[in-house]
Amino acid sequence: MTFSGELLAFLCLALVAVIGGVLLLNLTKVVHMVVALVFTFISLAGIYVLLSAEFVAVVQVLIYSGAITIIMLFGIMLTRHNDTSEPKGGALKKIFLFLGVLGFGVAVYIGIYNLDFNPQATTLHENNTEQIGMALYSKYIIPFELTSVLLLVALIGAIILAKNDNKKEADKE
After folding, report:
1. In the chain, domain spans
2. Is 144:137 a contact under the CB 8 Å cutoff?
3. How far apart are CA 160 and CA 59, in angstroms?
4. 1-79 maps to which CATH number?
5. CA distance 15 to 21
6. How far is residue 107's CA from residue 122's CA, in Å, rounded to a whole number?
7. DSSP secondary structure, 145-157, as one string
8. How far apart are the first and last CA of the chain?
9. For the residues 60-73, what does the mean pLDDT come to?
10. Helix axes 69-78, 30-50, angle to 10 degrees
11. Who has greater pLDDT, 100 or 113?
């Protein structure tokens, strides 16, 4: 088995993504968790570049690594946290968790190993940004607009909830 540069780049990016995910689950400080999440997002963007999906990679970096991470940090910093420490799970819980993750990994491996795609001639690498735009604004225009309405409703709901919390705090004082 020969290692090409593309395979080596994929293995490095996949390793960074997995390590970022594991650190996200195991770190105790929330800001450190968000930094681990950023590493995972950026490594996924690198994998998108390897798949010749440059537009999706740029969107991954701009939206997830940038905007979503900043929103998460603002949400963490602006909310009040009552430190009610929960006891850590025992060894039995960790063993069941490990067995569950291992079982999921085996199921995914078996599913991918037995998967058979019929190769079809595609022009995926040519003008993929244009193809995304054409599909998004012709075939998928209704789901695109419904998503924007859903995001607007979520934003209005968050504002209403924040105002209610402010009124409750003002009434307590």
Report:
1. 1-79, 128-173
2. yes
3. 29
4. 1.20.120.1200
5. 10
6. 29
7. HHHHHHHHHHHHH
8. 70
9. 82
10. 170
11. 100
HEC-encoded secondary structure of 85-105: CCCCCCHHHHHHHHHHHHHHH
Residues contacting 140, CB < 8 A, separation 6+: none
Q: How confident is the model at residue 133 (pLDDT cuts 50, 70, 90)?
A: confident
Interatomic CA distance for residues 158 and 75, integer angstroms: 11
- Closest to 42 in 3D by CA, of 21, 69, 60: 60
Give me the pLDDT at residue 44, please. Answer: 93
Q: CA-CA-CA-CA torsion for 91, 95, 96, 98, nearest 10 degrees?
A: 130
**Quick one: pLDDT at residue 55?**
86
Q: In this structure, is the dihedral angle defined by the CA atoms of residues 21, 22, 25 and 30, taken in order, positive or negative?
A: negative
* Alpha helical stretches, state H, 27-68: 30-50, 54-59
Exposure on the CB side of residue 108, measured as CA atoms within 13 A: 6
Structure tokens at 42: 């950026």
Residue 128 and residue 52 in contact, taking contact as beta carbons nearer than 8 Å = yes
Q: Which of 33, 15, 32 is nearest to 24 (CA)?
A: 33
How many residues belong to the chain?
173
